[in-house]
Every structure is written in C-alpha cells, then in structure tokens.
C-alpha cells in the first residue's frame, strides 16, 4: 500500500502540494469514490484511479527504445552537453530512467533506457553474453586478417584483451570499408579502440541491435518509444 499523493507525484501529476489541491477540488476518484484525503493508502496496482475524468495506469518501471542522435551524451546529467534524458517527455522523465550501458557522444543508434535496475544489470553484465551489433564505416580497407584478429580477441591500448568479436565485411576498398561488428562487452570507446589496434579508424558508428532487439527504423534520430510487452519479455529471457 502507498499514499495516493506519492503515487500520483511519481506518475508526474505534480508535487504533493499540487496534488492536495487537485484532491481538494474533488477531481480524483479511487474505485468510484471521490477522494477527500490526499494521503489515503491505496494499492496502485489494483485500485482504479481517475483524475478529472481520465483513468490513469500505474507503472513501477518504464522501458524505452531510443534512436540516439550525434552530439548527445548517454548520461542522466551533464554540465555541458545535452543528455538522452533531456530528449524525453516529462511524463517519462518522472520515472527517472537511465541508459542501459552507453553510446559515445558521436555514436548513433539503438539505446535502451529504463529504471529497472535488475534488468539493466543483466543486460550489461558480460556473464550474460548479450550481443551488441554495430554498423561502422572505416577509413581503410578491412581485410580477412582483421576478421581473424577480432575473432581471436584484439588487445586495446591499455593492454586489455577483448573477448572474441565477430567482424563482417560488407564493402571494402582502399578508401573506405563498411562492416558489422558484434561484441558482448562495453568498454569505453571499445569499437573505435578495437579498430585502432589494427591501425584503422572508425569514421561512423551506429548501434543497430542490442540483444534480441533491432533498431526501430521508423524512429528518426532523437525519437524514442516505449517497448512492447513482447519486447520486454524477450529481454528477460534466459
């Protein structure tokens, strides 16, 4: 059981003081009865709550899929740059979601956000072997030698040996290559540093898949949507 004003505040309907005024005006009903006490105890998952004639639906967790744009940082707060949280509507910000892992500031594509800490831990923990697939443009010709090096596990500039990664060549010439890269880790600037270890540079990077979920191509960069129940179930599967 939780206080009514706390539940409504968590759902973005105002501060507790503002909710007290809404209740005072007789605009809130719980299970068909007009509420007089904003501090009444309710079961938010079972009670039928109506505000100003509109039924509201309680959710403890929120799950979002964003097509992250360039120039935005994967953080909940930053003193200098716009964050992915700044791109959310207030109705979603009130849940205090956070990015699942991170994408570099200049990397675009699929980013998940949630306030479900347990699922977040599972998705970013290396022991669960969650694939993350990227489309990348490289400034030189990518060869089969590079494919084998990635499969073996390249060594980064700090001496860290990466886990085996899949490198698929889509196009390759002396000026530019286009590839898919699949990794199960999330080290700082990892894909870029992996290519630097084979003397090449990433000029464009886009995440197109995270675990079982693909980037929603109907989303423009900077847009997002809530995950469906089916998508959430896929993320929870062993």
Automatic annotation (TrEMBL):
PANTHER family: PSEUDOURIDINE SYNTHASE (PTHR47683:SF4), PSEUDOURIDINE SYNTHASE FAMILY PROTEIN-RELATED (PTHR47683)
Gene3D superfamilies hit by this protein: Alpha-L RNA-binding motif, Pseudouridine synthase I, catalytic domain, N-terminal subdomain, RNA-binding S4 domain
Source species: Clostridium fallax
Taxonomic placement: Bacteria, Bacillati, Bacillota, Clostridia, Eubacteriales
Gene Ontology terms, MF aspect: RNA binding; rRNA pseudouridine synthase activity
Annotated EC: 5.4.99.-
InterPro entries from the UniProt entry: PsdUridine_s_RsuA/RluB/E/F_cat, PsdUridine_synth_cat_dom_sf, PsdUridine_synth_RsuA/RluA, PsdUridine_synth_RsuA/RluB/E/F, PsdUridine_synth_RsuA/RluB_CS, RsuA_PseudoU_synthase, S4_RNA-bd, S4_RNA-bd_sf
UniProt xrefs under NCBIfam families: pseudouridine synthase
Family label: Belongs to the pseudouridine synthase RsuA family.
Protein name, as recorded: Pseudouridine synthase
């Amino acid at each position: 059981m939780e206080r009514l004003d706390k539940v409504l505040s968590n759902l973005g309907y105002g501060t507790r003081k503002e909710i007290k005024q809404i209740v005072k005006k007789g605009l809130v009903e719980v299970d068909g009865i007009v509420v007089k006490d904003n501090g009444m105890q309710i079961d938010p998952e079972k009670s039928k709550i109506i505000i100003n004639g509109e039924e509201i639906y309680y959710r403890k967790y929120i799950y979002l899929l964003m097509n992250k744009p360039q120039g935005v940082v994967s953080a909940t707060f930053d003193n200098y740059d716009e964050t992915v949280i700044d791109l959310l509507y207030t109705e979603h910000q009130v849940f205090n979601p956070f990015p699942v892992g991170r994408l570099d500031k200049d990397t675009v594509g699929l980013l998940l956000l949630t306030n479900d800490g347990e699922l977040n831990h599972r998705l970013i923990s290396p022991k669960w072997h969650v694939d993350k697939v990227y489309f990348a443009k490289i400034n030189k010709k990518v060869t089969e030698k590079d494919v084998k090096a990635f499969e073996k596990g390249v060594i980064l500039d700090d001496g860290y040996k990466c886990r085996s990664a899949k490198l698929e060549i889509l196009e390759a010439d002396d000026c530019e290559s286009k590839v898919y890269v699949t990794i199960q880790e999330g080290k700082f600037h990892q894909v870029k540093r992996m290519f630097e270890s084979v003397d090449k540079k990433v000029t464009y990077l886009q995440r197109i898949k995270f675990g079982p979920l693909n980037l929603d191509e109907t989303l423009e960069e900077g847009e997002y949507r809530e995950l469906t129940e089916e998508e959430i179930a896929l993320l929870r599967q062993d």
